[in-house]
Design brief:
- The protein has 257 residues and is an alpha/beta fold.
- The chain has one domain: NAD(P)-binding Rossmann-like Domain (Rossmann fold, 3-Layer(aba) Sandwich).
- Strands 3-2-1-4-5-6-7 form a seven-stranded parallel beta sheet, with helices on both faces.
- Helix 5 links the parallel strand 5 and strand 6.
- Helix 4 runs parallel beside helix 5.
- Bound molecules: nicotinamide-adenine-dinucleotide.
- Nicotinamide-adenine-dinucleotide (NAD) binds next to helix 1, helix 4 and helix 6.
- Belongs to the short-chain dehydrogenases/reductases (SDR) family.
Length: 257
């Protein structure tokens, strides 16, 4: 039996590393045509070449998704190459671990523009394409810290809280276009971001990964486990799911013990 993703086109922002790269591999494995948009040209080229070497259809577009011009060009490149966009996974993100006093205006803008404005921009250009094609699916990467606050992470929490409500607002607007819009709220996941957070907090490299033992499942998540939730939301199993924020965090937000 063929996969329901065979020949579907998915555009993944931040597809060069971590959760985005894991999703790219999963969707490619399921037969989808995968477009990666990332600011990291080396990582994007490497992964698209890996996928093509495995007889998958892949495209890398170098883009800074905090810039409207890059988002528009990325969407045009994907349409020129694959002709449509069925699934948009807005996943690119950065973090800055600091309180409101220590966060500079430049850092605030960088985090909000990369994590939140990028979702607005990509959707602005992709929604009309999906609507004229009879529908589509959008999945945004928020965070557990889009639902509850976290210490010393004001710009990150503000950006991810924004992603959660942007998701819900778009779900209201575009259900009529047969476009489902959902977000995932991962907890700590083993990617470069956790290492970068540890660096910013003056912790050792693995400290945040080891803190996973305090979660109900006793560990941090793996990128592939988060990618699996994206596949679920993109699939027909989730055909009646829109406007939701799916927590994927090993029980981290389940309550206090
Ligand atoms: N790792 C975690 O613990 C965790 C937890 C909750 C949410 N998230 C979210 O998951 C998403 C993916 O993060 P990750 O953990 O895989 O981190 P990562 O650093 O491994 O991957 C992030 C990707 O985004 C790309 N990127 C950054 N800025 C960009 C820009 N301006 N334009 C285009 N691409 C850009 C990077 O090059 C990289 O490929 C992020 O939105 C992050 O906030 C991660």
């Amino acid at each position: 039996m063929g996969s329901e993703f065979a020949e579907k086109v998915i555009l993944i922002t931040g597809g060069g590393h971590g959760i985005g790269a894991a999703a790219a591999r999963c969707f490619a494995e399921a037969g989808a045509r995968v477009a990666l948009a990332d600011v990291d040209r080396q990582a994007g080229d490497r992964l698209s070449e890996e996928l093509i070497a495995h007889h998958r259809q892949a495209l890398f577009v170098e883009a800074d998704v905090s810039e409207g011009r890059d988002c528009k060009l990325a969407v045009e490149r994907v349409l020129d190459t694959f002709g449509c966009i069925d699934i948009l996974f807005n996943n690119a993100g950065i973090t800055r671990r600091a309180n409101v006093v220590e966060t500079t205006e430049k850092e605030w803008d960088a985090v909000i523009d990369t994590n939140l404005k990028s979702v607005f921009l990509m959707c602005k250009y992709v929604v009309p394409v999906m609507a004229s094609n009879g529908g589509g699916v959008i999945i945004n990467t928020a965070s557990g810290w889009g639902l509850v606050g976290g210490k010393e992470a004001v710009s990150y929490c503000a950006s991810k809280g924004g992603v959660v409500l942007l998701t819900k607002a778009m779900a209201l607007d575009h259900g009529k276009d047969n476009i489902r819009v959902n977000c995932i709220c991962p907890g700590d996941t083993r990617t470069r971001m956790l290492v970068e957070e540890a660096r910013q907090l003056d912790l050792s490299t693995d400290d945040l990964i080891e803190e996973g033992i305090y979660r109900p499942l006793g560990r941090v998540g793996e990128p592939g486990e988060v990618a699996a939730s994206v596949m679920y939301l993109a699939s027909s199993l989730a055909s009646f799911v829109t406007g939701t924020a799916l927590v994927v965090d090993g029980g981290g937000l389940a309550g206090s013990a």
